[in-house]
Amino acid sequence: MSLKRLILFFTFLSFINAIQAQDEVDSLRKQLQLENVDSNRVKLYLSFFYTDLYYSNPEEVIQFAKQAASLSKQIAYKKGEVDAYNTLGYMYRIRSENDSALYYFEEGAELAEEIDFLGGMADAHTGLGNTYNQLGEWEKAIPHFEIVIKRAGKAGNNVLVASANNNIGNIYLSKGAYTKALEHYQESLEKGNLSIKETAQINIGLVHNQLGNFEKAKSYLQESIELCEKSGNKYALAFVYQHLGAIEQQSASYALAVEYFNKASAIFDAINERYNVSDIKTNLGNLYYDQAKYGKALIEFRESIAIQKTIEHDVGICNNLLAIGKVLLATKQLNAAEDTLLLADQLADTLQLLPAKSNITKLLSQLYESKGDLGKALSFSKVHKVLYDSLTNIEQSKLVAEMEAKYEVSQKEQEIELLSAENQVANLQLQKQQNLRNYLLTIAIILIILVAVGYSRYQIKVRANTKLRELDQVKTNFFTNISHEFRTPLTLILNPVEKILKTENDPAIKNDLHLVQRNAQRLLELTNQILDLSKLEAGKLKLVVQQHDLAKFIRMNVAAFESLAASRNIDLSCEIDEQLNLAFFDSDSVQKILNNLLSNALKFTPAGGMVRVQALKENEFLVLSVEDNGKGIPSDQLTHIFDRFHQVDSSEAYGGTGIGLTLTKELVSLHHGTISAKSTAEKGSRFDIQIPISARAYHQAEMAEQEQETPTTFHDTTMPEPVEEVELNNKKAIALIVEDNLDLIHHITSILQAEYKVVQAHNGKEGMAKAVDLIPDIIISDWMMPEMDGLELCKLLRHDERTSHIPIVMLTAKVDIESKLDGLKTGADEYLAKPFNTDELLIRMQNLINQREQLRLKYNKTIALSPSKVDVDNPDERFLIKILSIVEEHISDTDLTVEKLQNELGVSRMQLHRKLKALTGFSTSEFIRDIRLQRAADLLKANGIQVTEAAYQSGFNSLSYFTQCFKNKYGIAPSDYHKNQA
């Protein structure tokens, strides 16, 4: 991080007030039309600077300021002319048009001096100082800030003095003159208002950090957090967290450093400071490199580059490429390291970054030495040595120049102080001092009032901007929530329609039902588009890139439109490059892109027309075009076709919402691609798309994760059980439905009641209670519910020994891949999106029950019922171990009953019975008897023990009953078994 980026700058303009909302802009425009007094018109022109127009249309603000300057000059309103020049200077400075900024600030300073206008003079000289500072011409910048200090000091305006001192401190910090920087920051801290104090406090911390006083630096920065929170300055707060993270990284307190960096990144991301977000990702990459966590380091460096590409921050890209090369070299990925470092070397040459070039050549020398290419290693080593020596000489020259400058400044300051003291003694007059004091006090009160008003308006601007952001978030949440809420009613429309269609024979009624079905599905499609758009706006829609056969994928999607094209007598053709076989892309995004373009093409192409799809591979890109000879798009509307809700005038007769092409463009951009359109009215249109299809075009976070399923194992046995515990084979399985929508819960009940005994619960809390009480065979749960949602319910069920074995089907309106993965990770066995197909629900439920039965059989065959042999992998196995331990502990106790076992476990008789039955196929009494028989068999294998002894030691008090049970299990009498073992 460069030293200039370390400094928090404070730009003071006495006339800057809160930027107001759009209604203020409209109000000012109306006032301007009605105002006849020229001086008032000047003030109105300048007032646009403080409105939302400053952000939305800065060019118009500049034009208004120029009109204010021109009108002020005509009517000799010099104060208005000064304010206009300073406004223009400020606008050009923030646009980095420094020549224009210097011109207007100089005009403002000269005129302000002429009319003795203190506020205008301070604004002009502050602007000049900051512009020269921006250009790195520090010796020209300092005198302007000193003028402000001198003039404002005489007027008793401490706020202006503090602001100027802070800016001078910034310059000395940039020059490495830390003592001088601290002096000016301390002066700023003592005299400034809240905003200046927090800035000075932070900068003092940065100076101590540069001096190596890390504890002092931390102390100042941590104290500044409260000031930042009090003022609401989010940028400054994030800035503090970032540098606290850097200090903790230097101290090897990596966990705390990561915490600070993440806090800073979250705030910078929220206020759209992408430069700083990329900077922090670079910090995190270096931190993980220091810990030898190379995988994490690579992710952070690559994500930083991705952001820097969007803001054209080439220096940052070069430094990150250097860092990636260092990681690849450390992990022995020599070829990849070579490619990366050569790319960094080329960029360093272009940007003339000598320090980066020095480090790159050093690493390349080491790389080629590792590869055995000693010639190249020597060549790069020589380049590195030349660069290193040159840079060392430059640093030494800078150090000498700095020391000379410090000495000269010190000498001049001593001379100035001596002259000042002599003048003070010579001109000391008590009466003049009293008059001056009164004058300064009056001016100070006026300026304090002006500053207070300015600060108040600034706070209004901050609150207004916050309100606008909140309103935008409310809008996004509204679209998301309304889209989710559409899915449940659509389920209750589509499912009954599908149910009736299976049995209805009347053609007229079936046509009406198909009409309902088509329009409900169309509504679902529009809902999905709105939801996708809101996710894209919120940055929540992510790519899920996998490798597919792209040619086959495109062919199948085009084929889906062939019947529609044929019904409209349209010639639909498809030309696909067969090189498009295995490619990396997000199938869902590409399908939506293709479907939207084909739907539009077929919609606007008349009968007898043509629609042509062409897909080619160029380098590592898919080049896709969709062309038709339909209505076409007028040239004056072509530039607006990707705008949200925009519809071409001629398309209104065809219907539509105006969001299809908007969504298409956003999805293409998300896919790192481009889209363009060409069209001629009445001749047709052509849309061209270019999308990368290689793995290296995507970040690791955009690649799909490989899902792995670990089956749960179950026991089974065929031993009979006592009559009182038998469940008849033809008894229906119990299905628990957890859903808060009454219509939907009744609808699902009507679907299931023929094959299942259905139990209902109306929220997650009630569902958990009924699951524990009844131990159902399967659970169907909604995601979003009051009191406890489906995700939390799923977690509780999976972590409770009594319910961990029950299969769960999650029903939800959340169709994005992240939500699906969250549900599956939490323990859901199936994930169905609303509206769902009733047959699919029934089949998936039956498959889950069948899978559990098969796993139970496999579990019972492969795991012996002995505590020492059961591996503890999940809650079900822990439950078995607990039961086995209790039974074996009381194995010789003839009074060990089901009641005693359930009391030991703290469960009800039914819970114990259904859980054991699900896991092992045994009832509770059968389970106890089987363990006793296994123990008896083990005893009979030993020499010197009698059958009677084995029976009693295993807990049987009846020899005849023991003999009968033993023979039923092993097919042989205990006495014969004993003889065979002997």
From TrEMBL:
Q: Which Pfam families match?
A: HATPase_c, HisKA, HTH_18, Response_reg, TPR_12
Q: Where are the TPR repeats?
A: 82-115, 122-155, 162-195, 198-231, 278-311
Q: Which residues carry this modification: 4-aspartylphosphate?
A: 782
GO MF term list = ATP binding; DNA-binding transcription factor activity; phosphorelay sensor kinase activity; sequence-specific DNA binding
Q: What class of enzyme is it?
A: transferase
Query: Where does this protein have coiled-coil stretches?
Result: 402-438, 838-865
Occurrences of domain Response regulatory (ranges): 734-849
UniProt protein name:
histidine kinase
